[in-house]
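Sequence, please.
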C-alpha cells in the first residue's frame, strides 16, 4: 500500500516577512507571508504552518494582523505558532483565523497548558512542537 504524501509548507516569519536560513541564522528575506501562503494554497499544499520565529524571544504577541491576512487568502488548514504562552494567546490566534495553534517552549515550562487548551478549544486545535 503506497504511503500518502502530504505537503505542509512552513513559513518562518520575522518582522512580518517570510525568511529562510539555517538554524534561524543568516536569515534572508523570502517574501510577503500572505502572497506566499496564497501561492502554496493554490499550488496544492495540504496545510500551512506559520511560525513567528522571534515572538517568544522578543516577548511579544504573534502579529495577528498578518495571521488574519494569511487566513483570508487560503482555503487549507492553517497552524500558527511562536510565543504562545497562555490561553489568551491561543484564543487570539484562533480568532485571527488559524485552525490550530502550535505551542513549543510553553508545553515544557507549563505542561498543564496543553490540557487546558485542549479542554477549551478541542484537541484538534492544539499542536505541540518540540525542538530536539
Amino acid at each position: 500500500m503506497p504511503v500518502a504524501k502530504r505537503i505542509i509548507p512552513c513559513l518562518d516569519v520575522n518582522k512580518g516577512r517570510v525568511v529562510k536560513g539555517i538554524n534561524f541564522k543568516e536569515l534572508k528575506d523570502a517574501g510577503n507571508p500572505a502572497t506566499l501562503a496564497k501561492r502554496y494554497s493554490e499550488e496544492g499544499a495540504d496545510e500551512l504552518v506559520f511560525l513567528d520565529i522571534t515572538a517568544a524571544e522578543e516577548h511579544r504577541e504573534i502579529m495577528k494582523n498578518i495571521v488574519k491576512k494569511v487566513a483570508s487568502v487560503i482555503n487549507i488548514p492553517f497552524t500558527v505558532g511562536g510565543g504562545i504562552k497562555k490561553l489568551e494567546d491561543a484564543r487570539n490566534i484562533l480568532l485571527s483565523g488559524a485552525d490550530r495553534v502550535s505551542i513549543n517552549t510553553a508545553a515544557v515550562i507549563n505542561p498543564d497548558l496543553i490540557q487546558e487548551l485542549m479542554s477549551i478549544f478541542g484537541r484538534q486545535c492544539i499542536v505541540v512542537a518540540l525542538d530536539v
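Strands lie at 10-14, 17-22, 25-31, 48-52, 78-81, 100-103, 126-128.
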